[in-house]
Write a structure and sequence with these properties.
about 290 residues, about 15% strand, three-stranded antiparallel sheet, alpha+beta, seven-stranded mixed sheet, Transferase(Phosphotransferase), domain 1, 11 helices
Length: about 290
């Protein structure tokens, strides 16, 4: 922890200081371009620590943020600092750059995206799959307990370390779990993992994450999506029943299969109310 982190709450370093990032941070290797940001592994010259530096693309962020005009929505950096717990990325600092952008300092996550592990078809034991699902569920639960909806739960936003620890990251689309932030029409996320209420532009709440988690868990267990993948048009099928996951992997315990399939119910009221409810259902699985 550096002096900026200690004094930030007193001196307003967290959200209003303007930092020239390339005077403060030294890049280690090339940056990685995401849909709405660029991410770098850097050395913080103030602390000497190796951290992750996220620079949101403000041209892409602005249209999304404009949907919440007048609602005093927290920034991605502010949301990240409010979400703290197991299996979610730790946000150390956020603020404004000297050129009018934003920066977010997080743990640098060293590992492999779950997306790539699944795409490569890496061999995974049943115990591995159960552990991955449990850790992911715990991470989503932390987000919800902090009062937010992630809105983009998918294997691309899950990192697995060499020790097998899974971390949920990317709060770029996250919003407070309040009706005003989840109004009909805000179709946001990754189509293959979108809940029916998002696709159909209906009022939503944190249970949209439970659906997206269910798709992710289904994919972890079977190696396949519950419905044919594609764009938002293909995702219109998400309000039809998915094939029972046991048809694709008959090794899956009934308790786990039922818990996953309950996440995929078309009606939010038919899903688990909370991620804790899902975790309780699979608690006895090893």
């Amino acid at each position: 922890m550096n002096i900026r982190s200690l004094l930030g709450p007193l001196l307003n370093f967290g959200g209003t200081s303007k930092v020239h990032v390339w005077q403060r941070f030294e890049p280690i290797g090339e940056g990685i371009a995401g849909t709405m940001s660029r991410f770098y592994k850097v050395r913080d010259k103030e602390s000497g620590n190796t951290v992750g530096l996220k620079l949101p693309n403000m041209d892409k962020v602005a249209p999304i943020e404009s949907r919440f005009k007048g609602l005093n929505k927290p920034t991605e950096g502010e949301i990240g600092q409010l979400i703290a717990g197991d299996h979610v990325v730790n946000t150390h600092e956020h603020g404004n750059t000297h050129d009018g952008g934003q920066f977010i300092v997080q743990d640098f996550l060293d590992g492999t995206l779950i997306h790539f592990r699944l795409k490569r078809g890496e061999p995974l034991s049943l115990d591995n799959r159960i552990d991955m699902i449990r850790q992911t569920a715990q991470g989503v639960a932390v987000v919800h307990e902090a009062g937010f909806v992630h809105r983009d739960i998918c294997p691309r936003n899950l990192m697995m370390s060499s020790e097998g620890t899974i971390t949920l990251f990317d709060f770029g689309l996250s919003v407070p779990d309040k009706p005003a932030f989840l109004r009909p029409g805000n179709r946001t996320g990754t189509p293959n993992y979108m809940a029916p209420e998002v696709i159909r532009r209906r009022q939503s709440d944190h249970r949209l994450d439970i659906f997206s988690f269910g798709v992710t868990a289904y994919e972890i267990c079977s190696g396949k999506l519950p419905w044919p993948g594609g764009d938002a048009r293909a995702a219109l099928a998400h309000d039809t029943p998915a094939p029972d996951i046991r048809e694709l992997n008959n090794e899956i315990p009934d308790r786990l299969a039922e818990a996953i399939m309950d996440c995929l119910r078309a009606e939010p009221d038919d899903r688990h109310d909370t991620m804790d409810a899902f975790l309780r259902k699979i608690a006895r699985l090893k």
